[in-house]
Specification:
Helix content: 40-55%
Order of helices and strands: HHEEEHEHEEHHEHEEHEEHHEE
Number of helices: 10
Distance between the termini: 80 Å
CATH superfamily of the largest domain: GAF domain
Largest sheet: 6 strands, antiparallel
Strand content: 15-25%
CATH class of the largest domain: Alpha Beta
Length: about 450
């Protein structure tokens, strides 16, 4: 039997120093975690804009974890995709790029809500190799962490890749736990702030809509008085001038009718934009509707603008379309936006054509708005009718495409776009012949 150490004797060095070393390691770990919390809290408190917040959060995570590059992606429920909000590296993934939220490490983590530590990405089948092609770098090790509040569903993921010294491990996961939780909370706060601003804008738009309606009333009344005056004057002309008078009367009546219609549509458009901003709208009012008549009204309103630019407006096959159950006012807004947005993109001598055909077996009609304009690159085309759409025009809001998308969805339809740079763009809209079921109600 081994002798027992006598009282007061010094224990074996390993037995004494091992707990101390473990305590020191835990203390150092807590220090890193506290420092990470301090840094991310300080960084995020300086920003309320979502883009700035996301960029700051990602760069702070990379600094704290001593990693080379990373990405932060947010979920887009409209398309079931993860969307790059910010990316680092020599060739950052362009903002707005997206992929299905069930693919790759990011998709797996987003769906499970559990973080993943990858020691060697090249040997893991879940690695989405296209990302390496996009960023021009090889992923060695990485951590993919869900962005969510303590007891919430994931709203996205944060990826940290290629630790500069050593390999990403569980201690780094602990640090990223703190960073991701604070980042998710800040993102939700930024979104609430944006919603509050939109609510205020919607309130102001309601006031503007009332003012516009009041301002347009004298125009409508004045146009009616002018029409009566012209008809009375032309009626007094001698018979020799009657033929010419009839032509003048017809032209004046058409212009006045256009003024009255446009005044009414301006009022409707302001209300539609207000509804779009606040994310709510009254239910569609379905009634028999001819798409050919709607498009003709749009062309009549925009004909002068198209003529000034030397652009031809035409239709093909619309007269053969059967009546559909639709909200004519909303359909007008959708086609007006499509044609109006296309005009600036088409050079003089170009054309905008609206095609139509029926698909009886599917119970739908297909209406396509095609232009011979500049076209758009893939990254713009892919997000055109999604919540990620951003206007490329100076002073643009992107509301036009949102209105189009919402109108189509309110009718239970589908919208898609084809475009090629230097060739042109075609927007395809599929509309039901009969009113959509309640499941297709106008909800955003």
């Amino acid at each position: 039997m081994a002798p027992r150490p006598s009282p007061g004797s010094v224990p074996h060095p390993d037995r004494r120093t091992t707990p101390r070393r473990e305590q020191d390691r835990l203390f150092a770990r807590r220090e890193r975690e506290l420092e990470a919390a301090r840094r991310i809290s300080q960084a995020l408190s300086q920003h309320v804009q979502l883009d700035e917040l996301v960029e700051t959060a990602l760069h702070t995570a990379l600094e704290v974890l001593d990693a080379e590059n990373g990405s932060l992606l947010l979920a887009d429920p409209d398309t079931d995709q993860l969307v790059f909000q910010h990316s680092t590296g020599e060739k950052p993934v362009p903002k707005g790029s997206a992929f299905p939220w069930h693919e790759g490490f990011a998709g797996a983590v987003f769906k499970s809500g559990e973080p993943t530590v990858v020691k060697d990405a090249r040997q893991d089948k879940r690695h989405y190799g296209k990302i390496d092609e996009l960023i021009g770098s090889t992923t060695r090790d990485m951590i993919v962490f869900p962005l969510k509040q303590w007891e919430g569903e994931p709203i996205g993921v944060i990826e940290v890749m290629n630790k500069r010294h050593g390999t990403l491990d569980d201690e780094d996961v602990a640090l990223l736990t703190i960073i991701s939780a604070l980042t998710a909370a800040a993102i939700e706060q930024a979104r609430l702030f944006e919603n509050a601003k939109l609510a205020e804008v919607a309130r102001l738009m309601g006031n503007i809509s009332h003012d516009v309606k009041n301002l347009l009333m004298p125009i409508v009344c004045g146009a009616g008085l002018l029409q009566n005056e012209i008809n009375e004057l032309l009626g007094r002309l001698p018979d020799i001038e009657l033929a010419r008078a009839q032509e003048s009367r017809k032209m004046c009546n058409e212009v006045i009718e256009m003024l009255i219609d446009d005044a009414r549509r301006i009022s409707d458009r302001v209300k539609e934009i207000a509804d779009c901003v606040k994310g709510l709208s009254s239910p569609p009012e379905f009634a028999p509707c001819l798409v050919a008549d709607v498009v003709e009204s749009v062309f009549k309103t925009l004909s002068l603008l198209a003529q000034e630019k030397g652009i031809s407006l035409s239709t093909k096959g619309l007269d053969a379309l059967p009546p559909i159950q639709a909200d004519e006012r909303r359909l007008y807004n959708a086609f007006y936006n499509l044609v109006n947005n296309a005009i600036p993109e088409v050079a003089a001598g170009g054309a905008i054509t609206v095609y139509g055909r029926e698909e009886p077996a599917a119970g739908v009609i297909l209406v396509s708005v095609a232009d011979t304009g500049r076209g758009m690159p893939p990254e713009v085309r892919e997000r055109l009718f999604t919540s990620r759409a951003v206007s490329s025009k100076p002073g643009g809001t992107g509301l036009g495409t949102k209105i189009v998308k919402d109108v189509v969805h309110a009718h239970g339809g589908q919208i898609s776009v084809e475009s090629e740079v230097g060739v042109g763009t075609t927007v395809h809209i599929r509309l039901l012949l009969q009113p959509p079921t309640p499941s297709h109600s106008f909800v955003r």
